[in-house]
Amino acid sequence: MSDNRIEPTNDAAMDNSHKSTNQGYNMEDSSSNEGIGCCGYILTALSYIAIACMFPFSLCLCLKVVQEYERAVIFRLGRLLPGGAKGPGLFFVIPCTDSYTKVDLRTVSFDVPPQEILSKDSVTVAVDAVVYYRVSNATISVTNVEDANRSTRLLAQTTLRNVLGTKDLSQILSEREIISHFMQSSLDEATDPWGVKVERVEMKDVRLPVQLQRAMAAEAEAARDARAKVIAAEGEHKASRALKDAADVMNESPAALQLRYLQTLGTISAEKNSTIIFPLPIDLMRSFMNK
Questions:
Q1: Relative orientation angle of helices 254-270 and 210-252, to the nearest 10 degrees
Q2: pLDDT in tens for each of the 291 residues of the chain?
Q3: Whose CB among 47, 60, 107, 177 lies 3.0–4.6 Å from 134's, allowing a Cys bridge?
Q4: Distances in whole angstroms, Cα of residue 7 to Cα of each of 17, 19, 192
Q5: What phi and psi, each to the nearest 5 degrees, are found at residue 135?
Q6: Axis-axis angle for helices 148-164, 176-191 (nearest 10)
């Protein structure tokens, strides 16, 4: 019975440790950070005394300003101050004990260098992309990762190679929007513990080997020639059927045939020819042959 009671206690402790790890520096961490020790309190008190003695000149060192698009993450004696990031506007620091880091919250874009990727159908292509991201949590971006900008860039390169490595060349060329959306969701999920929000990912260019480009151009040209021959054959077929129908109509009416004969003579006479050959009607020749 005692073993059964101990196991759930350990599981609960492990769950709590995982939750605190995933959330980074939460309120529990900030409350524990308040205990800076006896030396910390002494140094803080001496700093306040020095600020009071040098007042108002000390305000130049104590008052700091951050812009509307910035936040300041303050550390006192190496410990994160409770209350989260400061700003925008004025905030107060103790010069001797406090240090702060400014974090830009604006959207940042960067180009992913061309990556040599072997597709699923064993075709080597070079693909580059552009990524748009911003810092969503200034405190986590400073405390949970050393360099959020550099880490996001490296992760974007590896994600691009991993995602495109599972696609065929035809999918890479035709499903660029789907691939970009999948990369954006993957990067956003991976960078969430860093306080980074990936807003958009776009594939810029897909460069194929020269030999493959020639082969694809030849294939496309052959397909166009085949379609042209089919269209020409269909046109000849329709023209021959129309000509057959016209011949049947003229065969039923000899007058129509004579009228077509006169129209043909008029067309020939309109051209500047030195010699014009008039064909004799077959009916006229038959009349002479009968006599």
A1: 120
A2: 334 433 333 343 334 434 433 444 444 444 334 456 777 777 778 777 877 888 887 788 888 888 999 999 999 888 888 888 888 888 888 888 888 899 999 999 999 998 888 888 888 888 989 999 999 999 999 999 988 999 999 999 999 999 998 888 888 888 889 999 999 999 999 999 999 999 999 988 888 877 766 766 777 777 887 888 888 888 888 888 887 777 777 677 766 666 776 777 677 666 666 666 656 555 555 555 555
A3: 107
A4: 15, 18, 32
A5: -85, 120
A6: 140
C-alpha–C-alpha distance, residues 258 and 40, integer Å: 120
Whether the model clears a pTM of 0.90, i.e. scores above it, the answer is no
What does DSSP assign to residue 193?
A: G
CATH numbers and ranges of domains, the chain: 23-104 (no CATH), 108-208 (3.30.479.30), 229-290 (no CATH)
**Amino acid letter, 44:** T
The DSSP result for 136-169, as a single string, is S-HHHHHHS-S-HHHHHHHHHHHHHHHHHTTS-H
